[in-house]
Amino acid sequence: MLIAGNWKMNLNSSDLFEFQKLIVNEKIEKKVEIAIFPQFPQLQLAKQILSKYNVKIGAQSCSSQLSGAFTGDVSADAISDIGCDYCIVGHSERREFHNETNEFVKNSASLLLSQNITPIICVGESLNIKLQNRTQKFIHNQIKECIPDIVSSSLIIAYEPLWAIGTGRIPKNEEIMSVHNVIFNELSHVKNLKIIYGGSVNLSNCSNVLKLKNVHGALIGGSSLKFKDFLAIYKTAVKQVI
Ligand code: PGA
Question: E-strand spans in 26-145?
């Protein structure tokens, strides 16, 4: 199980120290990982002050190119230099505001795997697609186009319906399970596969989501900024598996 906090374009170094103050008193279990995804400039500090408490660190995006003249982009190599464990790729906000395509996602994920960083590949349907009952087909296609040809190590897929991100709306249990099953069946050849859910996960709905079959954790935006809530969600996850 993985409880991952996507801080997006929020918080700064002093917040990292606040998070550290709280995490010092937590017991981080082996069976449930906790990870945070701060902005790039905070990654190094996050690694320095949090990895000793078994908090995993991840980046929020990665270039699809190895290196070169790509001003403002960050390479898998640079992310690996910091010692990141994870990197989110293809988040819907990257797809929408930075035109990241399935092909881009596939290339980034391949580069991350070559650096032994576990990619968290985001997939999810828009409200329009959901209303047309095309969710399963759409996710099937996204998976096919985003997954690197060779997955030698671990891989995480985050199912994040676009209409559930930051809206307070969350799919029905059956809807989450059916999409997770599509992903699971499509990627049955991947040895270390986790499928996590993201989109308006909070303290009140997390136990309901985390108990579902083939749900191996959560990618949490808004509620990860409230550290006490985030840690309480972590404890809920621990209760589910121990
Ligand atoms: P949310 O964001 O928890 O605020 O809905 C999730 C995400 O975008 O990863």
Answer: 33-37, 55-59, 86-89, 118-123
Residues 62/76, Cβ–Cβ less than 8 Å: yes
Q: What is the pLDDT of residues 97-150, one digit of tens each?
A: 999 999 999 999 999 999 999 999 999 999 999 999 999 999 999 999 999 998
C-alpha span between 5 and 33 (Å, rounded): 11
- CA 225 to chain CA centroid, nearest Å: 15
Ligand 1 centroid distance, CA of 48 (Å): 26
pTM confidence score: 0.97
Half-sphere exposure of 56 (CA within 13 A, CB side): 21
Task: Give the atom of ligand 1 at the shortest distance from the alpha carbon of 166.
Answer: 5
Strand partners, 218: 3, 197
Q: What CATH fold (topology level) applies to the domain 6-241?
A: TIM Barrel (3.20.20)
| E strand spans, 161-233 | 193-198, 217-220
**162 CB within 6 A, ligand 1:** no
